[in-house]
Amino acid sequence: MILQIALDTPLRRVFDYRPPAGFVGLGSNPTPRLGVRVRVPFGRQQLIGILVGVASESSIASAKLKTAIAFLDEQPIVDPVTFDLLRWAAEYYHHPLGEVFAAALPVSLRAGQPALQRTEWWSLSQTGRQELSTPTPKRAPQQRALLAWLEKRGRATAGEIGEAFKPAQLRALATRGWIRSEGVEPDLAVMESRPSEVVLTDAQARCVAAILASLSTFAAHLLYGVTGSGKTEVYLRVIAAALAAGGQALVLVPEIALTPQLVDRFRRRFSSGVVAVHSGLTGNERRDAWRAAHNGQARIIIGTRSAVFTSLPKLALIVVDEEHDASYKQHEGFRYSARDLAVVRARGAAVPIVLGSATPSLETLENAATARYSKHLLPQRPGAAQTPRIRLVDLRKHAADQGLSTPAMQAMAQHLKAGGQVIVFLNRRGYAPSLFCSACGWVAPCAHCDARMTLHRRAQQLRCHHCGAHGAVPAICASCGQALNPVGQGTERVEETLARLFPEAPLARLDRDTASARGAVQTVLDRVHSGEARILVGTQMLTKGHHFPDVSLVVILDADQGLFASDFRATERLAQTITQVAGRAGREARPGEVLIQTQFPEHPLLNRLLTEGYEGFAVSALEERREAGWPPYSRLAMLRAEAKDSIGLDAFLRAAVDSSRSLNEAAAVKVLGPASALIARRADHYRAHLLIESAARSTLQRFLKEWLPHVEKLPGRPPGLRWSIDVDPLEVD
Ligand code: ADP
Ligand code: ZN
Ligand code: ZN
Questions:
Q1: pLDDT digits (tens, 9 = 90+) for 147-204
Q2: How far is the centre of ligand 1, averaged over its atoms, from the C-alpha of 269 (Å)?
Q3: What mean pLDDT comes out for the span 310-327?
């Protein structure tokens, strides 16, 4: 018997080993089950890998075959559907299987800690019973009391015994053999859902009914509801029903730190078994959450991207909230889409999946249009809340003070006076995006990137947002010695301007700079919720699902960044951002208003968004995609590479193109490039890519499978060159 083992190495292959010496089977199985962990020798170290296959022979010469050291599990480390999902993902994203497993498992499990948390139950042994029935009352009354107590209870944990007796008694009885322990895996947590006070609207009730009609089968549901329309209430209802029969639910969210309210809402609705997994957990917390999911103590797992790999043996339903969010896509290493994998997982587990969004991705809308997904609409906010009124402010016509136009200032003053809160959105952090010499035109550059340094005034630093380089702020121009001026607006500068214009209104700022400390996000959100902060300035972080009842005005300072970008998804992202930020206004009793500042008020995208909403925008955006042959009407992959030597980099990519010419699928696939990345040099590395395009997913997959082994073996690559493949890339520049 040969064990095929996936090891956490960058090599795209599995490794053959002989079973451990003296191996006679695991538990009652003569062959080990796939998915168990195995410790093996690897070079001069030992590694822990996952058993992914058993074969009768190996292509490795028998003398060279090494022997595995030990199995770490009797049972697979993940449920069977997740095991298949991981293998599928490794194939689909063309990523080494061992690294895929490593991405799925918490560090401590990768390091060999037990996957199951067993509870030791103590009960009387045969001799313990005999002892209890012999009348020897003088000896060790405490021990006899414990025996009697235990007989009455049947079994107890060490913890329970410890509450009533001294630990020494327990040890003494165990040493005498009067009591014995048995490891038992915990049962599924009992979960009760508390009744909700809200009465579902008709639209919500229809969604809930449609989703529940598909329980126990695979079905993908798009829940397309404007922000604040009650999608979360729908999730809670379907989860309560789906779990009544004893199942588990997986809820994926873009970012937990930003939406503590969502987790709170789940915890309030369900009595127990709600577990949140996110990047803020310590290693042990993460391991415990994982175990709780794996052994059924956790009934609802709420997590970010990587939670899609959580072992959930009783999975009954998946929810992906804000399914359009770019953070579901991993941007480095194993570049998977958690949203897409969630659908694959739901199909594998034969359970329904709910994809919720106010601004669904064009891919998902297309899937709904072709009836692969069923679409359910929540067109209105329940109760008194109304969809906000949106206006464009023409920046060419109105004077602006540090980026803030007069109409925006007036509207802010009005809303603040009426007791409302105001959100000011700008997707650029720092003080100013460049430091400029008006005498000679010099702009402070990053020494390591083809990019400008951003001025961070409070920190008194210039920082590069692409490579992280930072330095002191120069006092004078490096080229001519004149004074330098900060040009453009970042959130820090907007905060300063607003403090000057509205000295009475306390400010809060939310961006990656203010959110870096642990708990900082919560502090900012608390200040907004309590009403203490009247104005909230921030970036993209503001768009994610927050519910601020008193926000009545949203000002979008600069809509123009996304209008003319080169990436074909830029307009989709802009429309989503505008709609999402706008959705923060008027979520309860106060009517909402949204102002969008732009230099291009006649731009068709902005106008369609205003007149026809996101839905209207999406229809014409999909039409454009169809004409241009972009996804979802084609399939893409990107081969990205970077090296210090730009000539060698270019030669490598050209050789990669050449090596594709003779392949079977070459005629059905276009390989475009090499082209430089948008930031052509980052952290001293030149970056370029090839774009691979095909009409069909299967063609692209066959092509990559054939092509990548050639790319891997291309000779003469420059030292330090790194390359990667990105299937279904979200960004193509
Ligand atoms: P979404 O998830 O679509 O942003 P939520 O589910 O958070 O929307 O609902 C927005 C607000 O409306 C919440 O305060 C929620 O309690 C409330 N709500 C949801 N459904 C109803 C309903 N049927 N009746 C009254 N209020 C509701
Ligand atoms: Zn100068
Ligand atoms: Zn840089």
A1: 888 888 888 877 778 878 887 888 888 888 888 887 666 555 567 778 888 899 999 9
A2: 14
A3: 96
464 CA to centre of ligand 3 in angstroms:
5
- Using most ligand atoms within 8 A of CB, pick from 198, 223, 233 the residue to mutate for ligand 1: 233
Give the closest residue (by CA) to ligand 1 atom 17. 230
Best mutation site among 232, 263, 550 for ligand 1, i.e. most ligand atoms within 8 A of its Cβ?
232
Q: Which CATH fold would you assign to the domain 2-110?
A: GIY-YIG endonuclease (3.40.1440)
Q: Which atom of ligand 1 is nearest to the CA of 547?
A: 7
Fold of 202-378: Rossmann fold (3.40.50)
Check whether 545 has a pLDDT greater than 70.
Answer: no
Amino acid symbol at 151: E
CA–centroid distance, 726 to ligand 1, in Å, is: 37
Query: Which residues does 314 contact at the CB level (< 8 Å), separation at least 6?
Result: 188, 246, 247, 248, 296
Q: Which of 146-155, 240-249, 346-355, 659-668 has the highest mean pLDDT?
A: 346-355
Q: Mutation test of ligand 1: which of 198, 235, 550 has the most ligand atoms closer than 8 Å to its C-beta? A: 198
Chain centroid to Cα 348, Å, comes to: 20
119 dihedral zone (left: phi>0; alpha: psi -120 to 50; beta): beta
Find all residues with CB under 8 Å of 535, minimum gap 6, and list them. 412, 416, 421, 422, 423, 424, 498, 502, 505, 506, 507, 508
Cα-only R_g, the chain:
30
Q: Is 22 left (phi over 0), alpha (psi -120 to 50) or beta?
A: left
C-beta separation of 474 from 461 below 8 A: no
- What distance in angstroms lies between residue 481's CA and the mean position of ligand 3's atoms? 23
Return the domain boundaries, the chain: 2-110, 119-184, 202-378, 389-432+488-622, 635-727
Give the pLDDT band (50/70/90) at residue 384.
low
List % helix, strand, coil for the chain (3-state, nearest 5): 35, 25, 40
Which one of the ligands is nearest to 357 CA? 1
Ligand nearest 681 Cα, by number? Answer: 3
Q: Which ligand has the minimum distance to the alpha carbon of residue 198?
A: 1
Report which of 361, 510, 357 is spatially closest to residue 427, judged by C-alpha positions.
Answer: 510
Residue type for position 431? Y
> Taking the mean position of all CA atoms in its chain, how far away is CA 89?
16
Q: Any bridge partners for residue 476, and if so which?
A: 483
- What are the two backbone dihedrals, phi and then psi, of residue 224, each rounded to the nearest 5 degrees? -100, 100
| Displacement of CA 298 from its chain's centroid (Å) | 19
User: What tokens appear for 487 in the block?
Assistant: 């040009």
Alpha carbon distance 222, 211 (integer Å): 10
CA-321 nearest atom, ligand 1: 2
- CATH T-level fold of 389-432+488-622: Rossmann fold (3.40.50)
Torsion of Cα atoms, 231 then 244 then 197 then 301, to 10°: -50
Q: Which CATH superfamily is domain 635-727 in?
A: Ribosomal protein S10 (3.30.70.600)
pTM for this prediction: 0.89
First to last CA, the chain: 48
Pocket of ligand 1, beta carbon within 6 A: 198-201, 204, 225, 227-233, 382-383, 547
Q: How far is the CA of 587 from the centre of ligand 1 (A)?
A: 9
- Domains 2-110 and 389-432+488-622 equal at CATH topology level: no
Phi, psi of 538 (to 5 degrees): -175, 180
* pLDDT over threshold 70, residue 26: no
- Please identify, by atom number, the ligand 1 atom nearest to the C-alpha of residue 227: 4
Q: Is the dihedral angle over the CA atoms 496, 498, 504, 510 positive or is it negative?
A: negative
d(C-alpha 420, C-alpha 413), whole Å: 10
- DSSP code of 453? P
Measured in residues, the chain has a length of 733
